[in-house]
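My hope is that you will study the record closing this message with an eye to the fold:
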Amino acid sequence: MEPLVLDLETVPIDGYADHIAASPAPPTYKKEKALADWAERSLASKLDKASCDVDLGRIVVLGVQDGTDVEQWACETEAAEKDALIAFDAAYNGRQLVTFNGYAYDLPLLARRFLYHGLKVPMGLWPIDRYRTNHIDLYEWLNGRGLTSAHGLSWYAKRLGWAYLPDDPLHGGGDVWLAFREGRMDDIL
């Protein structure tokens, strides 16, 4: 059976700001203005990264590639996300997965979303033992599990001559969130 390639696009969950607090200021910060500025910057930074937090992000597009067949599930609502997780579980069925940075992000987030929806986490998704699994994380493979320099997927695709979508309108997580808020799901898919 061929491996299943997996990719996710995420946005923050509804009400994510209620779960975020500013980091404590360094002890050298004493003045009220400096403390307030620190808290504002700290909070803004965490809010900007909420879609990348496995407990504060949710899936808006779940995509898999099986050989040449590509399946994408658009998840404009959490109910649609739950349906996509169920459909993914059927397609996955314990197969070998291929991801890019899946150990650090895709698989933990995917497992959390199963849990938050009250679904059983499929075997092989969590917990992940990166040294004894048949999952292939291209990011880890390309950087020797952190022993060499690391780059993003588009960098490797260009450098290694892999087929890639050069006219992709979105360039990162912030772009996905903006497109989602503006109702541009076609740009995300």
Notes: DSSP finds seven helices and five strands in the chain.
